[in-house]
Amino acid sequence: MSKSGVAGLVVVLSVLLWSTPAFAHVEAKPESAAAGSTIDLALMVPNERMVNTVKVDLTLSGQQQVESADTPAHAGWSESVNVGTAGVANVVWEHGAIAPGTSDTFVVTIKVPMAGDQLLLKTLQTYADGTVDRWIDAPLRDGSEPEHPAPILKISGGAAATSTTSTPTSTVPATVPTKAAAKKKSGGLSVGGLLMGFGVAIIAVIYLRTKRQNTRESRK
After folding, report:
1. pLDDT(81) > 80
2. Is the model's pTM score more than 0.85?
């Protein structure tokens, strides 16, 4: 193959390599933490595109409430923590640059939610050309990794791990019948009493008739 052919092949392979979607994704450390604890959460953000990463947006809303978050100064970047009505909404790092083929780590101090068994750390990675990698997908039901997986912080001792729903119990003592039962019972006794009285009356009538008939026959 000629030198020009080799050079052309190298160019084609380079274009294919850089145009292929990035396989490395955003990762978080630590991978697990206790519910209610305060931790330094580190996001490792790689850049496998040909342009700089210029913004990283960590979304915390729409799931378990994260009560507080704080970010130390990160050289070359500006940080902001946005708080909504239900706790921390998101944490943003911008106005910086992650060069192609490199990575950077962003740290945020958060209070781990008390509920749930995991926190989905949805992350948007924005590039200088406007492209956005959305690392927001939850694990698939079959356990396989989705196309754009979100980092996950596993929570130990969360409220969801144990059932907080109790079966309601009756406040009526076992030895005291309820009104419905008492009514049913009293109704049954009334019917029984009527039947018994009716039977006694019939027997009495038969007895009296028999006695009268015997008396008449004896007089004859």
Report:
1. yes
2. no
